[in-house]
Amino acid sequence: MKQFLSASDPEDPRALVKKALVLKANPFQSSAGKNRTLGLVFFNPSLRTRMSTQKAAFNLGMNVMVMNVDKDGWKIEFNDGTVMNGDTQEHIKDAVSVMSQYVDILGVRTFPSLQNKEDDYSEKVISQFTRYSTVPVVSLESATRHPLQSLADLITIEELGIKRPKVVLSWAPHPKILPQAVPNSFLEWIKITDADITLACPQGYELADEFTNGVKIEHDQYHAFEGADIIYAKNWSSYVHYGQKPEVKSDWTITAEKMALTNKGKFMHCLPIRRNVVATDEVVDNSIIYRQAKNREYAAQAVLQEILENL
Ligand code: CP
């Protein structure tokens, strides 16, 4: 594997899930990272991605450098040909060319603007990392995808051992305007499994066709939940009315009453979660979210190990 930006990058994504489970059983079996350095560059906040990816690298014997580029770095210019006499201080071309000389793998987190669909869906920022980096690039969540999260989600679902699980990806409320990266990515990855997948969302919150092709879309959350084995909750802003929050009149918060419609369904969320907004305390406290978060470590370790073995 030369990069990890989407489900298309691993040669066999299902084998990567199996590899992560083997690593979970014995995390210290490889020293493929000895004398290698991982760089983690964050344009946006993170708890799980930052800590789990560092832990994964330590399990492999790697050194890790973390850069909060939004706070600690020079202000980056992303456009080519700009006369840089304004407030940007360093061009992305120079920043990435330099950073990639210090590391063997470069991870980057960059959220979408949610203002310019074309820039976001062409991955304006992370594509410049792959363009200018001399080492493999790993997405720590980009404008349209969160592949390390999705891989951890598949590992968690695989551990449940349910044959052809009915999985519902459900929109849920949130006070802020959030990216579509997690749900896009979840759909992209769950499609490679044998799961029966339904997207439940209010009108106006459908995702881009490239992710929903072949996915059932349901606008009645109660109906969608009937018989489900897994409820994966997430908020996202509108793709059609890009980056907006069309009004939703019904209550989409996930409650114990709604979970009772499922087939003793497990509740999943990538975290962080707004309790009693996205889902009630009762739902969150009876969920598998901590196992999901733990599996971030082995998702990252499987990806890093596969890249290291191909350096
Ligand atoms: N789920 C996830 O990516 O968490 P962080 O934003 O805290 O890294």
TrEMBL record:
Domain of life per record: Bacteria
Purpose of the protein: Catalyzes the transfer of the carbamoyl group from carbamoyl phosphate to the delta-amino group of N(2)-succinyl-L-ornithine to produce N(2)-succinyl-L-citrulline. Is essential for arginine biosynthesis.
Annotated GO MF terms: amino acid binding; ornithine carbamoyltransferase activity
Protein name: N-succinylornithine carbamoyltransferase
Domain Aspartate/ornithine carbamoyltransferase carbamoyl-P binding, residue spans: 9-159
Domain (Aspartate/ornithine carbamoyltransferase Asp/Orn-binding): residue spans on this chain: 182-305
Residues binding carbamoyl phosphate: 46-49, 74, 109, 146-149, 270-271, 296
EC number from the UniProt entry: 2.1.3.11
InterPro entries: ArgF'-like, Asp/Orn_carbamoyltranf_P-bd, Asp/Orn_carbamoylTrfase, Asp/Orn_carbamoylTrfase_sf, Asp_carbamoyltransf_Asp/Orn-bd
Record-stated family: Belongs to the aspartate/ornithine carbamoyltransferase superfamily. SOTCase family.
Enzyme class: transferase
Reactions it catalyzes: N(2)-succinyl-L-ornithine + carbamoyl phosphate = N(2)-succinyl-L-citrulline + phosphate + H(+)
Binding site for N(2)-succinyl-L-ornithine: 141, 174, 234, 274
One of the GO biological process terms: L-arginine biosynthetic process via ornithine
Alphabetical keyword list: Amino-acid biosynthesis, Arginine biosynthesis, Transferase
NCBIfam families: PRK04523.1
Pathway noted in the entry: Amino-acid biosynthesis; L-arginine biosynthesis
SUPFAM superfamilies per UniProt: Aspartate/ornithine carbamoyltransferase
